[in-house]
Amino acid sequence: MSVLTLRGAPPERLDLNGITPLALSLLSEAEAARLPVGTSRRGLTLGDCFAIRLDGSADLVIEGGHERLDRVGGGLSEGTIRVEGDVGQRLGEAMAGGELTVSGSAGPFAATAATGGRITIKGDAGEAAGGAIYAAKAGLDGATLVIEGEAGERLGDRMRRGLILANRAGRLTGARMIAGTIAALSVGDHPGYGMRRGTLLLGAHGTLTPTFVETGHHDLVYLRLLARSLSRLSPAHAELARRPLKRYSGDLATLAKGEIWAAA
Amino acid sequence: MSDLTLNGIPVVDTFAEAFDVAGTAIVVTNDTPKWAMIAATVMTGFATSVIGCGAEAGIDAELSPEETPDGRPGVRILLFGFEPNGLKDQLLKRVGQCILTCPGTACYAGVEGPTKIKLGGAIRYFGDGFAIAKRVTDAEGKARRYWRIPVMDGEFLCEDSVRAVDGAVGGGNLLFLGRTHAETLKVAEIAVEAAKSVPGAILPFPGGIVRSGSKVGGRTKGMMASTNDAYCPTLKGRAASALPPECGVVLEIVIDALTSKAVAESMRAGLHAATEAGAAHGLLAVTAGNYGGNLGRHHYHLRDLLSKASA
């Protein structure tokens, strides 16, 4: 596997968009070292910040994470990237395939606009994970995002399709959702605020927005399919889908084709 | 009549002539095997001949909960038509009228193939704008798209599209020449049980058996098909009759399958089972129907089916 080893705390935010196994496999170590990653007039290159060891493989390890590493795995389409440490904002932005794993925590907007592949954050995620960045029409767009720790506010804000799993999440989970599925064992107040379509599967939740209406308990085939699908990613979330659930329909203030399944 | 024999029963050295057709498979599930079977039985009704029914359909297999996408008991249905558009039309009508309407059912694609047929994506309009599309990963990790259509018992879940296969074949057949109706029917029943045990093959006629075998055209103007007079026992003695004097009944089984190999294996299984039971039930001979070999490109020679396993 190829390895990028962080030399030390970056002096500025670094933009690692496009630093993927496929892109690096086409370059020599010297060529890779000249890739610009800085975000100021300092002109930092990949070689300035990382010790580079490439073998042309489809697996890349980034040793030594830092919250200033932005857009790690951005544009990944195949292969794997494993980050040993934390990352900054927009982890896996516009990723289309492959697997991206972060052993630490991620900043805001993780997996925004990601259309495929799987992103796993072992630690916590900042606000609006799977959410839309400012002025963007949509957030997560087909990829799978797994947050094993706690997600911040507005998890999946304006996500369009795909799946997000989180252990816990803050308030406004699934706000303004266009479509897709979010499953979390616990979330804060007002989940699904303004959601048009989409599914929220929740263990515990805070106050519900009054524009959601309870439709009762339903033994729907969809929940069986969802449970089977989740079992590949998280047995705890799959178990949640098999529990007695109460369904709420909403947000009636918008299209009202969304739903919240909450543990009864 | 023939130099060929199998289990002591003469086998005419001829062939069954079969045709390329468009074929698909769906899986219907329900909370109980009983209701899955009810849905499947209704959907495969009036589907004996593509000429008169628009499609030929049958139940391929009963599925255990472990074999279905949603972990409920299910039934795999095969549906065949002349061409993909006709197949699509029949599929939509039959799923719309027989599966959507049946309490508790869900409907999934039952086969992979190159031709996409929109199913749930068309039936969703019954949901009057309240239907929801969901993409869910299946057991193999493949994302599949379903439509959840609100109905009065909850939701009808239907896969967005199913697939039609290349290489489906319709019209494999065997004819059993017997002495009495009861005995020949018994032989045909035994053959049906063996023939339909081959995965991917169905026998669309009532109980798998057809008594009104046909020939192409007829003496009446405009008839596409008419009775197979050469095998009608009441027409024995005429020049065109193919029946020996002692023959009193002829029954036929017709086989459609997703592959040509499945047709051959189904015919082989039926032929062997029929001849094994034939001596005890007055079976005189086994033959097959064809149109001279000019209409269908698939020819299944009975000579090639005499061995237990394919070469």
From TrEMBL, chain A:
InterPro entries in the record: Formylmethanofuran_DH_suC, Glu_synth_asu_C_sf
Signal sequence interval, chain numbering: none
Q: Give the residues annotated as coiled coil.
A: none
**Organism domain of life:** Bacteria
Q: What is this protein called?
A: Formyltransferase/hydrolase complex Fhc subunit C
UniProtKB/TrEMBL annotation, chain B:
Q: Which family does it belong to?
A: Belongs to the FTR family.
Domain called Formylmethanofuran: tetrahydromethanopterin formyltransferase Ftr N-terminal: residue spans: 5-151
| Domain Formylmethanofuran: tetrahydromethanopterin formyltransferase Ftr C-terminal residue range list | 154-305
> Pathway, per UniProt?
One-carbon metabolism; formaldehyde degradation; formate from formaldehyde (H(4)MPT route): step 4/5
Binding partners and assembly: Homotetramer.
- For this UniProt record, give its keywords in alphabetical order, as a comma-separated list: Acyltransferase, Cytoplasm, One-carbon metabolism, Transferase
Entry protein name: Formylmethanofuran--tetrahydromethanopterin formyltransferase
Q: Which gene encodes it?
A: fhcD
Q: Does the keyword Cytoplasm apply?
A: yes
- Predominant location of this chain? cytoplasm
Cite the source lineage: Bacteria, Pseudomonadati, Pseudomonadota, Alphaproteobacteria, Hyphomicrobiales
Catalytic activity annotation = N-formylmethanofuran + 5,6,7,8-tetrahydromethanopterin + H(+) = N(5)-formyl-5,6,7,8-tetrahydromethanopterin + methanofuran
Q: What HAMAP family does the record tag this protein with?
A: FTR
Does this UniProt record's set of keywords contain Secreted? no
Q: What does this protein do?
A: Catalyzes the transfer of a formyl group from 5-formyl tetrahydromethanopterin (5-formyl-H(4)MPT) to methanofuran (MFR) to produce formylmethanofuran (formyl-MFR) and tetrahydromethanopterin (H(4)MPT).
The EC number(s) attached to this protein equal 2.3.1.101
Supply the SUPFAM superfamilies for this chain: Formylmethanofuran:tetrahydromethanopterin formyltransferase
- Which cellular compartments is it found in? Cytoplasm
